[in-house]
Amino acid sequence: MFLSEDLDPEELKNEANIKWGKGEIEDANTLWSQALKQCIKYSMRGISHLLNVHNKIDTNRCYPTKKNRDMQLSLRLNLSLYHLKKKEYVDCINQCNIILDNIVNVNDMFSYYENNIDSEEGTCEATETGEGKETDRDAEEDCATDSGRYIVKRDTLIKIFLRRATSFLCLHDFDKCGDNISLVRKLDPQNGEALTLERKMKLEEIDYERKQREMYRKMYQARTHTQSTEDEMNEITPKGETAGGPVGSEPCEVCEDREVHEVG
């Protein structure tokens, strides 16, 4: 039985970042995905070891380690950006959701940042898609964690919500887009990208509703036209007549005889 080779997730991620900077996004995505699998494998291996030795999880030694956890967060942020650029909006949203689901006390963290707006200066200027402007690649590792009160920085949360908002907007889910914009505004009331995205959302919602009304109007007109044509056809009197009356009113003797012999 052959064991799979253990690879260094950090080396894989660094190689992927270089390829991303060169525009080789498919290769970068492959390496990021591979690095994430290695991180998950290491964390599961640690949990299995603790269970076998102690028959319970020792929370003081529980895997994944902080480094492993931070690496997974960084990799998923990178993957979410890849999916956003590829217009794979559902996959982008899923990666963002996984990040939030795996943040311990995310609600407490959000409340803390919301109530302490000036407690942390932003370190990574985010764009509408949540990309950092400071580098060509997605330098998530530079702003993924914080040595302060919580493990995830305010800027990282904003980036996640902006990406989800952008994805929902592209999927024409305006309610969820608005919800994520509101979350950004709570963390940073003056966030310029959130304001821009909100204006874009309102314009696109108006345009989308207009197109929907136009589509339904055309469908109704087509249905009405079809119904009118059918009514007109039903009102037309058959031109051909026989001695016994109009064609189709009564079956002729030949038809009656054929029907009798075909039964059975």
UniProtKB/TrEMBL annotation:
Region of interest (Disordered), residue spans: 222-264
Compositional bias (Basic and acidic residues): 255-264
Alphabetical UniProt keywords: Repeat, TPR repeat
The protein, known as: Tetratricopeptide repeat protein
Species in which this protein is naturally found: Plasmodium ovale curtisi
Lineage: Eukaryota, Sar, Alveolata, Apicomplexa, Aconoidasida
